[in-house]
Design goal:
- By secondary structure, the chain is α/β, with parallel strands linked by helices.
- It has a single domain, classed as Rossmann fold.
- The chain has a seven-stranded parallel β-sheet, with helices on both faces.
- Strand 3, helix 3 and strand 4 form a beta-alpha-beta unit.
- The radius of gyration is 15 Å and the shape is globular.
Length: 185
Amino acid sequence: MPILRSVTVFCGSGTGNRPAYVEAAKAFGHLLASNGLTLVYGGGRTGLMGAVADASLASGGEVIGIIPRHLFEREVGHTEVSELVVVGDMHERKAMLAERGDCFVTLPGGSGTLEEFFEAWTWKRLGLHKKPIAFLNSDDYWSGLVETLRNMAAAGFLDSADLDEIIVEETPAALLERLGSVPSR
């Protein structure tokens, strides 16, 4: 398995209504930094995006944010990250998120988070990349979606081998272990 150097995280710009979501985002950010991994994310300073970035920064990690100009201009860009890349639109953001990370991890979020996950997973299914894709299933947030994907496979619309490639773990440590090898420090 290739060595991971950077992790692209998809997650919400809100915090949700359960403290477990924020706690898991913070724990994941700390874990990335403590393992010498760069966080690549959507560049926001609010919600789970801000929580994972702030935790990684607080632990001495490198954080790369990629944000579309229209969101940056609404003053939601996290200007304290190691590198903040302001791009023209959401399409450019997603392309750069895909390019700069060695894997994809999806934390709780809304429709934008789902859209980012599905695009990265679809690209993998089409052979456009071979990067690991994962859900951090904080407080069973993604369990219903995983069940829906299983139903889609059972109905013949997805190949079960494609489902087997999605890593689903409950804790940041278990998830990072399943993602593969990390650089030695």
